[in-house]
């Protein structure tokens, strides 16, 4: 009798163990399924390519930009790949990306194949484009000539001079209706910038979004243009595009107006869906 009772108890325990095992496996399976769904939901849907200046005086800005873009990418669900030369750029390579960023990379030292690919990318609207600071260094530098197409894309300008010592100034927004300027104050201060001057204002061929008020230079400088756009977009091409002159000092990423504009520019140029 005792043996029969013992066997009965053993069988009951065994059944409970099997049921518990099945329950645990179901829970684990559900947890794994939920995890895979969550991963699928946060997988970056937009790919960004940034060509960044390697080394030099702009390296601190580039490093700060990379950290900020990594944070924004996690928030807005996009990924950024970085290159430091144009050697890999061709049409097929650019077609992998919805946005191309010139992160202080100049418009020279480009291969002919890369030039042709970028022209096609921008003129045909294969993706968006955002340029910073050094992207408007148009002229003859390091043995390279002026890139005529890029000069026209930038408003027909040629680099003329710059303020070597850092100068603080007020930037005034002109087109507050543009998507890039949403949530940006009518004017804001930019500290420690080496303002470029050009041989002409690009205003005649681009949509000026903001200008620097040269009367607010601190300290003052004789290097002035009069009409001095510093943020603009070229509506004559199919790609959504924005150029930001400001892009020398890493502290720009502590400037709320600046980061708001750059965030807006990325969302607009890359055609990111609305939140």
TrEMBL record:
UniProt protein name: ThuA-like domain-containing protein
InterPro entries from the UniProt entry: Class_I_gatase-like, ThuA-like
Native source species: Spirosoma oryzae
Domain of life: Bacteria
Pfam families noted in UniProt: ThuA
Positions of the ThuA-like domain: 47-269
């Amino acid at each position: 009798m005792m043996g029969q009772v013992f066997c009965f108890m053993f069988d009951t325990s065994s059944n409970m163990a099997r049921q518990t095992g099945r329950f645990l496996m179901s829970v684990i399976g559900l947890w794994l399924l939920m995890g895979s769904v969550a991963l699928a939901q946060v997988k970056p849907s937009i790919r960004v390519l940034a060509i960044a200046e390697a080394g030099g005086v702009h390296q601190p800005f580039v490093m700060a930009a990379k950290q900020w873009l990594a944070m924004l990418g996690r928030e807005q669900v996009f990924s950024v790949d970085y290159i430091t030369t144009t050697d890999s750029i061709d049409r097929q390579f650019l077609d992998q990306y919805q946005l191309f960023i010139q992160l202080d990379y100049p418009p020279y030292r480009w291969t002919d194949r890369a030039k042709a690919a970028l022209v096609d990318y921008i003129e045909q609207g294969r993706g968006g484009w955002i340029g910073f600071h050094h992207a408007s260094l148009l002229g003859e530098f390091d043995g390279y000539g002026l890139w005529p197409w890029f000069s026209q894309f930038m408003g027909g300008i040629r680099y003329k001079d710059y303020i070597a010592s850092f100068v603080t100034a007020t930037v005034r927004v002109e087109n507050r209706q543009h998507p890039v300027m949403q949530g940006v104050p009518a004017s804001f201060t930019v500290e420690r910038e080496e303002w470029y001057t050009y041989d002409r204002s690009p205003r005649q061929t681009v949509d000026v979004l903001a200008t620097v008020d040269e009367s607010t230079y601190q300290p003052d400088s004789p290097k002035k243009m009069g009409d001095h756009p510093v943020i603009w977009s070229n509506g004559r091409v199919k790609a959504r595009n924005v150029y930001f002159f400001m892009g020398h000092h890493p502290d720009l990423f502590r400037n709320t107006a600046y980061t708001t504009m750059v965030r807006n520019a990325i969302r607009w140029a890359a055609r990111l869906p609305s939140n």
